[in-house]
């Protein structure tokens, strides 16, 4: 039996991880610490909210005293760290929050973990700090370059990836210097349910449903290696249970796609969904091009992202050989599940679009009823 502290558990991957963990290990206690920034959504945790083994704490990872209290109060032995500013475009226009949360926030967690687990000795012999990072720390690949492995030198290009790289180094240093029991996973682009619709895949799905343009940055030939979010959760689970202390494990989908091809694929899946299910046209009256089978007409080439990395790809050899890790979903099955989830969860993404997903926070601090 374990007591987990999951930071960023109200975000996209964190929430999927919490759902996965509470289903897989129903005896474990899961405490989520989340600041509910624009990317945090309390509704992402609705499926577990009534579970007696679930606790939600609204707070900031930079608040070291709060983290220390949570570690002690809930007798935490495993900290899984997802909380971050995660969107590259936002890091280009406003890097400060990325430095604050991704670097200073990670250091705040490390300090608290060291104090409670090592200095005060709570769970000294049995603790784990698992840090969730990204393949973007390795920089960018040319078309023929071998995929990123755990020994690829760090070469982050965006303020986002630079801040994640810094946090990876701090985690490593706390292991090397103080003996904190850490593991790190660096994964490729995730997709799936609860994905915030500022990222490519959910943006394209929800824009088709509203007949809005589908922005393709530059020539659309940039490549990403897409990983279904539940496969990521399984990978983290394996690293926590079987990974070597102090090590990093790359988790990928073995699934490279050019952006434009993925957008065209989603267009065709949406057109097919509308053709096969006549109720969709009534439920989504705005989606006139999908109804006609012409979603791809919404594709619009726009100015490229500054410093846009050309290609990411993960060499999964270490996680495969050492942990037996393999993604379960194929891209066909994962993207079909994702499209279906968004079609069936209109109230979730509409609440994000109209801002009402923030009501919970408003109510907490004004006492207003929703
Ligand atoms: P997200 O932006 O959807 O969610 C981030 C969560 O962290 C939100 O709930 C937010 O409220 C919370 N948060 C932000 N700042 C906080 C703070 N200071 N204190 C407490 N909570 C805070 O992110 P995501 O896509 O779920 O990514 C989760 C992790 O996985 C991040 O560390 C990210 O770098 C990493 N990652 C993501 C991807 C991806 O494809 N999304 C790929 C590789 C790695
Ligand atoms: P994104 O989902 O933001 O993830 P990341 O930048 O972490 O890879 O973007 C995925 C790819 O899609 C990336 O190459 C940028 C591109 N992109 C677009 O072409 N148009 C868009 O509107 C968005 C959000 C992304």
Automatic annotation (TrEMBL):
EC number(s) given by UniProt: 4.2.1.46
Cofactors: NAD(+)
Reactions it catalyzes: dTDP-alpha-D-glucose = dTDP-4-dehydro-6-deoxy-alpha-D-glucose + H2O
Listed CDD domains: dTDP_GD_SDR_e
Keyword NAD (UniProt): yes
Lineage top rank: taxon: Bacteria
Gene3D superfamilies the record matches: NAD(P)-binding Rossmann-like Domain (3.40.50.720), UDP-galactose 4-epimerase, domain 1 (3.90.25.10)
Signal peptide interval: none
Annotated Pfam families: GDP_Man_Dehyd
Domain NAD(P)-binding: start-end pairs: 5-338
GO molecular-function terms, A-Z: dTDP-glucose 4,6-dehydratase activity
Record's keyword terms, sorted: Lyase, NAD
Family designation: Belongs to the NAD(P)-dependent epimerase/dehydratase family. dTDP-glucose dehydratase subfamily.
NCBIfam families, sorted: dTDP_gluc_dehyt
PANTHER family for this protein: DTDP-D-GLUCOSE 4,6-DEHYDRATASE-RELATED (PTHR43000)
Name this protein carries in UniProt: dTDP-glucose 4,6-dehydratase
Organism: Microbulbifer elongatus
Organism lineage: Bacteria, Pseudomonadati, Pseudomonadota, Gammaproteobacteria, Cellvibrionales
